[in-house]
Task: inverse folding
């Protein structure tokens, strides 16, 4: 994928208090924000690959809240003009993310989600201390956990992207030690530090 | 054959192509504007991609968005239908650049046939007659006057890159030529960036007769006889028929053979139509232009020949040969098509978008058989953004009087409410002596007050 060389504003519509951000054109939707990400006007929220090149998708004026929809399963998801890319709950900005139907309290509403599907390990090795624990403050680059994908282990670092702040405090683990996650599943509940 | 095909059009023609694709076992992907999203006709497609907003420039004319839609839905070919991008050589080239087969002739053929003088030169070299006129583009006003004197007044100056009447001037005297030449040149330069002019004998009236041809990439071209499209209003065809009541058997055979030869001579691949003007006095047929696409009125040809033209287009675009020989094509009976537009004939043919409260056209009133090509049904919306064609009624019978009778009964029994339609006009034409006698020309609508 080539780097974005221009940007397009997402198209905004509103239904029953939920903001809907729609594709501004036909193309492959990629690098989406995940569920729980906080969005604000001017932010980039994924990209759209078109014949003309790759456009960064920009959050339009008047949109502030938390993403309450799941990203597409495909890395390059074909979309048409007007297709729904995100549903945004305006009440979700800086507050609890309401995961409908689930009672899980994820604290101050920020979640770090998995970039890939695999198995999460909280500790660098058996019998060792976890990478992080509730109350710890994470900064860019801090190790969060290991993820095992097809027998390969890699460290998941904290990154202040997708609506996460530069510094965040761990509220709780949302993925079990040794538990399986899908791409986009939450790993940690966080709050701004 | 392709596995998947994108239809870069909407409405009636999109439905027609989707059905041909399905018959050929090809998955059909449609495009829509946001105004057409959810319309009943989109159900004909296996998949639909919205390519933009309601205005054609925001959707059906967006070349890159349409090519992108074809790519991301796994299509190998694009059928442009008619109108919109169907004769846009740049769109054809963009498809090919992106690995998509454009269902039509080569972009270079489209380009050549899209310009007036180059198409005339090509067709004259291929053996067709042209309307008498200048031998190429005019160098100056003196040459224009000399040519006009040779061929006789009235004459018409035309812009090589013309369209929409700009750069066109009818001249009846030398003084008028001298006066019109500079202004026509200036107008053409301003409108098209090309001030080149040529001159022709100005013909009023006459009949519009066109020949359907199909060529393949193996150098073969056949004709499927002619269509007569002389019932027109402001150059918009209203009724088409095949065969033409104005041609004898010998003239028909000769015209078809010459058109097929010309198509082969220019290496034409796919379905195309060569339009001729039959002079009002002599009946001499001169080449007017070539349309490098499927025509709205193609069903009348399908009815009299039994050949599915869209199916042939798909076969040829997929690298196949024309599926029949010239000797294998025969013309049986007579077919007439009436275009049903959502327009009010009583109010200057004002378009009448709206909701179709009722929509039914009887198929069984005889004596001939009836085919209705449409994308609408009861309850459908006719949006205000696009052309007003809502249905084509096509009849096929043993002879012309039986075909006319079938059409009269069918249209007389049609119930379409919620929008005005051109049916009253068609019934007036079908019931007129001029139309039934077959003696009329493009200047006026037979049976309809001017």
Result:
């Amino acid at each position: 994928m080539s780097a974005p060389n221009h940007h397009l504003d997402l198209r905004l519509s509103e239904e029953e208090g939920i903001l809907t951000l729609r594709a501004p054109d036909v193309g492959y939707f990629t690098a989406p924000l995940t569920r729980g990400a906080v969005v604000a006007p001017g932010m980039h929220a994924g990209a759209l690959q078109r014949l003309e090149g790759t456009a960064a998708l920009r959050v339009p004026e008047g949109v502030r809240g938390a993403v309450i929809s799941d990203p597409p399963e495909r890395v390059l998801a074909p979309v048409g003009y007007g297709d729904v890319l995100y549903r945004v709950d305006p009440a979700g900005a800086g507050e609890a993310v309401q995961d409908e139907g689930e009672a899980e309290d994820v604290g101050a509403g920020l979640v770090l989600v998995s970039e890939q599907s695999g198995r999460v390990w909280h500790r660098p090795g058996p019998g060792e201390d976890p990478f992080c624990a509730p109350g710890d403050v994470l900064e860019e680059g801090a190790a969060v956990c290991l993820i095992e994908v097809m027998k390969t282990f890699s460290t998941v670092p904290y990154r202040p992207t997708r609506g996460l702040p530069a510094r965040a405090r761990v509220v709780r683990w949302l993925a079990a030690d040794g538990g399986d996650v899908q791409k986009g599943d939450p790993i940690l509940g966080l709050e701004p530090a | 054959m392709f596995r998947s095909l994108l239809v870069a059009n909407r409405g009636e023609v999109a439905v027609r192509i989707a059905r041909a694709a399905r018959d050929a076992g090809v998955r059909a992907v449609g495009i829509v504007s946001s105004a057409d999203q959810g319309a009943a006709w989109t159900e004909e497609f296996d998949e639909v991609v919205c390519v933009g907003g309601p205005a054609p420039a925001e959707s059906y004319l967006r070349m890159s968005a349409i090519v992108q839609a074809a790519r991301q839905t796994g299509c190998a070919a694009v059928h442009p239908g008619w109108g919109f991008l169907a004769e846009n050589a740049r769109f054809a080239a963009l498809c090919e650049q992106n690995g998509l087969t454009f269902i039509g002739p080569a972009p270079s053929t489209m380009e050549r046939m899209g310009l007036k003088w180059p198409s005339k030169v090509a067709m004259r070299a291929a053996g067709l007659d042209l309307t008498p006129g200048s031998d190429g583009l005019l160098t100056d006003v003196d040459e224009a006057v000399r040519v006009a004197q040779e061929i006789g007044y009235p004459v018409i100056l035309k812009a090589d890159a013309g369209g929409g009447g700009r750069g066109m001037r009818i001249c009846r005297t030398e003084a008028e030529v001298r006066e019109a030449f500079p202004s026509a040149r200036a107008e053409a330069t301003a409108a098209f960036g090309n001030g080149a002019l040529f001159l022709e004998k100005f013909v009023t009236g006459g009949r519009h007769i066109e020949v359907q041809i199909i060529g393949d990439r193996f150098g073969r071209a056949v004709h499927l006889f002619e269509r007569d499209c002389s019932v027109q209003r402001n150059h918009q065809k209203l009724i088409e028929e095949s065969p033409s009541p104005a041609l004898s058997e010998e003239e028909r055979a000769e015209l078809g053979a010459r058109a097929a030869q010309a198509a082969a001579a220019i290496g034409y691949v796919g379905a195309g139509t060569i339009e001729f003007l039959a002079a009002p006095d002599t009946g001499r047929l001169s080449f007017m232009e070539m349309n490098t696409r499927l025509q709205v009125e193609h069903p009348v040809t399908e009815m009299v020949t039994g050949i599915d033209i869209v199916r042939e287009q798909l076969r040829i675009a997929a690298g196949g040969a024309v599926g029949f020989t010239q000797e294998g094509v025969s013309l049986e009976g007579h077919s007439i098509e009436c275009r049903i537009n959502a327009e009010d004939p009583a109010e200057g043919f004002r378009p009448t978008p709206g909701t179709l409260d009722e929509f039914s056209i009887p198929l069984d009133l005889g004596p001939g058989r009836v085919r209705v090509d449409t994308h609408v049904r009861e309850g459908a919306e006719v949006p205000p953004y696009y052309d007003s064609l809502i249905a084509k009624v096509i009849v096929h019978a043993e002879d012309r009087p039986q075909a006319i009778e079938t059409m009269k009964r069918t249209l007389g029994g049609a119930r379409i409410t919620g929008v005005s339609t051109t049916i009253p006009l068609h019934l007036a034409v079908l019931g007129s002596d001029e139309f039934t006698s077959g003696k009329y020309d493009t200047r006026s609508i037979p049976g309809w007050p001017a």
User: Anything to note?
Assistant: The interface with chain B takes residues 25-28, 50-52, 78, 80-83 of chain A (CB under 8 Å).
